[in-house]
Amino acid sequence: QVQLVESGGGLVQAGGSLRLSCAASGMIFAINSMGWYRQAPGKERELVASITRTDMTNYADSVKGRFSISRDNAKNTVYLQMNSLESEDTAVYYCNTAVVLRGPFRDLEVEVWGQGTLVTVSS
Questions:
Q1: Residue 102 CB: number of other CB atoms within 10 A?
Q2: CA neighbor of 46 nearest in space, from 57, 56, 59, 33
C-alpha cells in the first residue's frame, strides 16, 4: 500500500506565505506526476499545480506567479510554496500522485490521494 502524509496547512493573513509538503511512503517503485488540488466550500475540486518526473510544471491561472511546486524524488515528496496568499485561496488542499507499483508480471500505475490539509487565509 501507498500512503501520503500532508503537512503545512494552517491559518495565515492575506499576503502571507505557507509551504505545503506531501510525503509518499510504501511499496513505491517510482512516482510519475505529483500535484496539488484544492476544494473550497461549495466548489468543485480543482487542480492547483502539478509536476512531472522531469520537473515540467503546470499551474492554474489563478495561482501563476504566486505558487511554486517542486519535488524531491529521493524523498518521494512534493512541495507547494504559496506566496501572496489571498482569501480566495482558502480551501482544503489535497496531494495527488501517480505511483508506479511493481507487479508480478508488469508495473502498475495507481492514483493516490492525500487526506487533505486546510489552508485558511484571513483578510
A1: 11
A2: 59
For 6-19, how does the pLDDT look when each residue is reduced to its tens digit (9 = 90+)? 999 999 999 999 99
- Quickly list DSSP for 45-108: -EEEEEE-TT--EEE-GGGTTTEEEEEEGGGTEEEEEE-S--GGG-EEEEEEEEEEEE-SSSEE
Residue 65's Cβ-count burial label (10 Å; 0-12, 13-18, 19+) is exposed
The predicted-structure confidence for 96-119, as pLDDT tens digits, reads as follows 999 999 888 899 999 999 999 999
Neighbours of 13 (CB within 10 A): 10
Question: Residue 96 carries which side chain, given as an amino acid letter?
Answer: N
